[in-house]
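Ticket #339: bound-state structure for 1,3-dihydroxyacetonephosphate.
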Amino acid sequence: MTTLAATAAQLVGVGKGILAADESIGTMNSRLEGVGVACSAAHRGAYRALLLTTPGLSDGVSGIIYCDETLRQSLPDGRTFPTATLQCGLIPGIKVDTGAKALAGADGETVTEGLDGLRERLAEYAALGARFAKWRAVIRIDESTPSHRAIRANAHALARYAALCQEAGIVPIVEPEVLMDGVHTLGRCAIVTSVVLLEVFGELHDAGMELDGIVLKPNMVLPGKDCMDAASTDTIATTTVHTLRTVVPAEVAGIAFLSGGQGEVLATERLAAMQSLDAPWPMTFSFGRALVDPALAAWHGDPARVPDGQAALAQRVRCNSAALSGVYSPMLERESVSR
Ligand code: 13P
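RESOLUTION: The complex was predicted; output attached.
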């Protein structure tokens, strides 16, 4: 097994998922403001330190994705985040895209940027301790979107990013997110997700990628947030796994779903329902909001409430890890968030 494949396998290892704590400075600031915490590098660092130092985190989490700022910050005890992450038994990762920018001539659609200088940045991130990376492409479903042009541009950028990562010895998390926003049906999401993934894997193939050294981070297949037709947990789970099985090569190291704005309990229930379905790769979580929102709300920026924030994160990790192991039940959600 290559080093890339070994790292990728560790990231999707049994009973574990990936914590996405890589919000950009702007996004993190608005989340802090949302719970009444002043925006500052110190508060952003304190919040990430709360997450990382949650007791027992490595029981259900394999790695944490940071943004550039956090990767360079230190904990109050002086250890850098990458060093402390490794010492906590977790793999440090880094978000390397620079965001979804308007795609010229494609009304309202975006292409994710960040390829300029990426080879040099990856070398620096590797030296700082990052062992895996993330790049998120954003696909919006509307009456007239996504256009094939936007899908192609995003898939091509994802493959160029992935190739640069593997060249640098860093495992790429390939994240083509089909957004939940909109009125589209589950069926439309399934079609768009397959078309996007087909294009992405075509590009990854052309780029000569080692598929066992890649983790795919897709959306679950869901009806749009404002769709009138609800779908059951079982329908979502079977449609998601069927869609992925049709287009994602069996060699891929694993699938780590994003939460995409689903409620935290729903995201966990859907993840749990997928585990009994036949699939050639492990399926785990790489949630952001569905893992950390309760922790952020419980913490409130108050140093005295760090244990409350950590207990809230630990509870979500326990539930999601139970989902992976086939022992999740609604009872677990009712267990008190004990400190
Ligand atoms: P959410 O789970 O909040 O969608 O975030 C995951 C992520 O990493 C988005 O890029």
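RESOLUTION NOTES: The chain has 13 helices and ten strands.
TICKET STATUS: resolved
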